[in-house]
Predict the 3D structure of the following.
Amino acid sequence: MNVYVIGVATAPPSFAEHRLRLEELAYYTSRSALDNAGVSRSRIDSLTIASCDELDGRPISSMLMSAAAGGYETDEVKVTDAGASALCLAYARFLSQESQLGLVVSWCKSSKTDVEEVMRQRGDPFYTRPLGINAMVSDAMFAQAVGEEFGITEEDAAQRVVAGYQRASHNPRGMRHPVPTLQSIAQSPMQAVPLRSGQRAPLTDGAVALVLASESFVKRNPSCVPLARIAGAGWCSDSYRIDAQRLRGMNSARTAWRSAMTQAGLASAADLDVVELECPTGYHEAAYAQALGITDERTLSPSGGAFAQNPLFCTGLVNAAEAVLQVAGKAGPVQRAGVKRAAAHSCHGYAQQGNIVMLFESPKEAQ
């Protein structure tokens, strides 16, 4: 059974979205995706949302957010680990024939809470939490481990950061941050060895929505033109322990990658034209490229990835939207020529404990 993406939208990112309430941010993004797909909200039969109560600052946030996101009188399911997880769940619902037309929505206002404190509270109360391990510290531990494993130097990581900002500067859906110099990164404050502030992608506020449709729905509604076909999906969570074996092995990333590639019938990264990686630092990009066997650097994150926009919880789902636009030939100034297949990657948890990979291909390739 083929499952297609027929609509996509991302909210204009910002460091702090004060103009719109969270409900309004979800509503307008969902509305834009439905308009892009050419369907009305009343026609969808499923809504799959991804949100984090702690980052939203609202207990059981779906009670307030589901209707705004498009779930009024519609079957709704929520996931809480990452935005890209909602896309995987929605895909599974379509494969099991539970849905014919569905909406996938995720959002995050990183500016509304203390992200590092939220991440610290994710630690167990007897060991990790008292040590003060948070996103910054766990990312630094990951950077140390993969730096030793793959021979990644501070200069290598900084060069990737500059390249990410350069690609992001052309993306109209990104923040268009000023492109830093290698010197400014090297002179930025050390936050947790080996990470300096200039090496970390800035957090932003944002939202993203995709409209999925079954093959039968597309056949019945020829005016709804598919942007991309979902060719494969893989996800995996590794051990909660932040030890050297888990950090250096990157087993959850490798497992998710293999699963998605196998489903899509692809042999290696050489079969992909674009790979949108979720990489909050240059160390992450270098490590993922080596672990996943990505040798053509030109395929890496033409959107700029997290250096274009980084609404934390849903950055990986933004990557999926960018991958869809690439295979549809609608990515604008960051469009790569002749894209037939694209991968979107997402990671979540302490030091990338969980990883998700989604593969998309041009509908013409599926025929």
Notes: The first strand starts at residue 3 and ends at 10. The radius of gyration is 19 Å. The CA atoms of residues 46 and 262 lie 27 Å apart. The domain at 3-114+204-220 is CATH 3.40.47.10 (Peroxisomal Thiolase; Chain A, domain 1).
